[in-house]
Structure formats: structure tokens, C-alpha cells
Amino acid sequence: MVLFIIGSGGCALSDTAWQMMGWRVVQALGASAGPVLARAMVRDLYARERSAQMLSTLMTIMAIAPLVAPLLGAQILTLWSWQGIFWTAGGFALLALAGLLTLPETLPADRRNPQPLGQALVGYLELARSPRLIGYALAGGFFYGGIFAYIAGTPFAYIDYYHVPPQAYGLLFGLAIIGIMGANLLNTRLVTRFGSDRVFRFGTGLAALAGITAALDARFGWGGLIGLVASLLLYTSMSGLIVANSVAGALAAFPDKAGAASALVGAMHYGMGVLGAALIGWFADGTPWTMGWIIGLGGIGTFVAARLLVRSPHRDDHSITGGRST
Prior knowledge:
Blueprint: H1 2-12, H2 17-31, H3 33-45, H4 48-62, H5 64-79, H6 82-100, H7 117-128, H8 131-161, H9 166-194, H10 196-220, H11 224-237, H12 239-253, H13 258-282, H14 289-309
Helix pairs in contact: 1-2, 1-6, 3-4, 3-13, 4-9, 4-12, 8-11, 8-12, 8-13, 8-14, 9-10, 9-11, 9-12, 10-11, 10-12, 10-14, 12-13
């Protein structure tokens, strides 16, 4: 959080694009700790299905950010300046830092690992050799590739190709956020009844179906704008069934290395997501087809990874309702 605050201040005081990019790197290094450690803290406190429930709740709250941030940023830009956006971000970080001072340590002392950083990095090799963990990470990564392609591709597809007014595009984007939040809330009910792995696989199946449908619509225009919006809404909503359960499954496989597992899974998720967004620019052809086939591949990839790598039944000896795992 301190790094994020410093990076935000540096961005606000930047005079050149190179300074801005440098401080943005500092800001990103600080910001990366929050998602990784928040998920690890959930695993410290709760085991398998219960952790999937709590992660869904966490991600429901996080899903509000993409909806609120552009609206808030636009108001700050109107009333203040672009520098004000970074000062505001730093101010929120200060509030979060103050809140952290009241947060108790979630990892029991007997489970803490005093090994040096170098040895901890070597431990990533053990995680990378687990087909199950890689399956969760790849499934989420392919899905995020489609999500980032959606974020990068829909402004052109909706506004330029289908001539949707910019104001209406904001409503369509907000509809996707509502779908994600609704699916996360649904996931909190489903995991206790069917188990997180079954819900996870079901979500990847729907994501594959939605991705293929979006690709066909983008290529042939069978459903027009409505068909494209509907298939993309289904695809993005599956975040509620895929992401929380994939993270919960990965962390449950390595409860004593929850932080490292969370970091590895997060890196693969966002790394493949960035690749999906980059592909939009590399293969743009003036139609929604590029976005469509990338999302289609993302849906197929998440389904195949879930089916082929996340196969063995998971056995979790930790209590689901007993608070901290021991």
C-alpha cells in the first residue's frame, strides 16, 4: 500500500510520459499485493467450499470497482484535473492502509514459513509441477484472456461497428458487471450444494458455449448486436462461477503455500488476460471478428483445461465451518 501511495503521488507530479510510466510501474507493484494477499487471507480463515463462498463475496464487491471507477474518474476530471485522479487514488490507499492497521494476522504462527526469499522462489517449481493447480490457473487464464479481449474489443464493436451511442455503451458495460455480481452471489449458494469443482466445470462449459456463440455472431452477424451482447453477457457472467472456484481450488491444494499459489494463479490469470487484449490490436481487421475468435478460444481453452487437468477428486481435511484451517 505504501508503494501504491508513492506511485500515485509520483504519477500526479509527472511532467513527461516516461516519468508517468515509471511511476505507474511503482504503483502497480504496490497494487499487486492486495489481490494476492486478500485471497490468501481467505484461505487462511476458511477451507474449500466455504472459501469459495467468501471469495465470491469478495469478488462481488470487487466487481463494483469497474462500474464506479469510470464514473468517479470522469467527475474528478471535470471538477479537478487528471492529476486529481491520482491524488484521489492515493487518498483511498491511505484509508486502506489505515484499515490494515486494524486487521489481525490471519496466518497462525505454526503455519508461517521463515525460509529466505530465494528458497521461497524455488518453491514455485513445486507448484508448477501440480497438474491440478496448473489446471485451475490455465482455466482462469484462458477465461481472463477472453475477458480482457471483451474489455479491449467492445468499444469498437459496439460504438464504431454497430453505432451504439457512447452513453449506451456505458450501460451495456454496466450490464456485464451486474451479471458478474449476480453470478458470484449465485455461486455462494451453489458451492455448498454441488461442490466448487462441479460448479467450476459447469461454468467453464457455459463459458465455452457463450464464447463459440459470440465468435459465430461476430463472424456471420446472425444475431446482430443483440446476439453479440447476449452471448458476451453470458460469457462475462461466468466469472462468478469460474474465478472464485478456480482460486479456491488452487489454494486448497496448497494450504501451506496459499500466498505463493495465489500469486502464481493471479500472474497466469492477468498475464493471459493482457495477451488477450494485445491480440485485439495485433489482429484487428475492422470487424468484431477478432474479438469474437479470441473470446471463443478463451471459452474453449478454459473448458479444456478444466476437463483435462482438474480431474482427480479433491480431498480437503480442513474444517469448512470451523473458522481457521489448521
